[in-house]
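Summary for the steering committee. The consortium agreed at its last meeting that each partner would contribute one worked example illustrating the joint modelling workflow. Our contribution is presented below. We chose a case with several input lines so that the handling of multiple components could be demonstrated. No manual editing was applied between input and output; the record is shown as generated.
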Amino acid sequence: MRTRRAEYSESTRQALVDSAVDLFTKRGYAGTSLDEVVKRARVTKGALYHHFSGKQALFEAAFAQVETQSIESLTAVISGDGDPWEVAVAGLRAYVRKCLDPEYQRIIVHEAPVVMGWERWREAEEHFSFGLLRSAVQLLVDAGEIEDLPVEVMARLLFGALSSGASTIASSSDPKRTGRDVERAILRVLEGLRKK
Amino acid sequence: MRTRRAEYSESTRQALVDSAVDLFTKRGYAGTSLDEVVKRARVTKGALYHHFSGKQALFEAAFAQVETQSIESLTAVISGDGDPWEVAVAGLRAYVRKCLDPEYQRIIVHEAPVVMGWERWREAEEHFSFGLLRSAVQLLVDAGEIEDLPVEVMARLLFGALSSGASTIASSSDPKRTGRDVERAILRVLEGLRKK
DNA sequence: TATCTCACATACCGACGGTACGTACCGGTG
DNA sequence: CACCGGTACGTACCGTCGGTATGTGAGATA
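What follows is the complete predicted structure of the assembly.
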């Protein structure tokens, strides 16, 4: 049953999350006040605390929204069932591009581990970007394309390297050039792991 | 001229920084109140705001202290002038060990980029751990040990991978095993970049 | 229509970062 | 030795912000 009240409620919740994503991206978690969030969403703190248990919960909702959108755009790239190596390379490129999105970079890469705590962040990432990356690495190992080092660890290292690379690109004075360098370096590292 | 007054003052400042390092490590930046810091240092906020312009400045002092200690222990490892490759490997091992130190991991790796802002963190790191790592990479390239990809980018990627790897080890249920896996994986990546 | 419920709004509290101002003590000067 | 200037704090207070308790009105229910 889809009542009108429920629609209003969902709309309010969505407005709060959108506002949160926007402000957390611009000013960070600590720099964003809930008063600002509710003001931009044209509601009050009563609404916020009705939908979320607190600031942390609101952040996690913003986190989930950004990650969900990312997953959608990434799976579209990966779902093609061509040569595993080609697919993996395309996925890498797509992920680096994603990391350059301000929302993703600020909320997911930089703030989330601190705000949610590294342990909880890691757990949440299992179902999102990191989970996807690990499956990709697993595919490459299964296909015999790269050495079969422990997948979990390999994925972690790659994840860290990619995030760091994306941050470097984003704050570079010549993003285009740095972007090419990062891509080439990552590909070169993968080539180094490739079985002949 | 080393007056007694200056010694007292320096001692007070040091007590504040030590207290800050300890509390920031245990509870993080946001979770640490300045009242706690000054209480543990057995002074008041007046003293704190005499020595530091605010909470951020106190954090940066803590950051500098932890990094300075790290630099000292790392340069000791690297300063040996043996085979560049051996020195680099020893340096990598030493850095991963450093990342497992709670103070370093929490303050430098996790909190600093968020608290100081990524840009400022990057700038500060030029004179500390990252600067050291980049020189090490530069040495390997100059010695013709690895491919001469852009050093800056390579160092960034390696830095991110190492930090991520260290976090993985620290939160692993079997740190010893994970530690070995991370070391092996990193070395394997470097081998892949090695010129034949 | 009467009632109930829930999705908010309003008013308020305590904690915390930061500031203004007071003060005691050290170190130099006549 | 008396005096004085400045440094190194301590104390009292303010504004902001996250969180809570309670009121209320529109929409669902019978």
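Residues 1-52 of chain A form a domain with the Arc Repressor Mutant, subunit A fold (CATH 1.10.10.60). Chain A has two domains: 1-52, 55-193.
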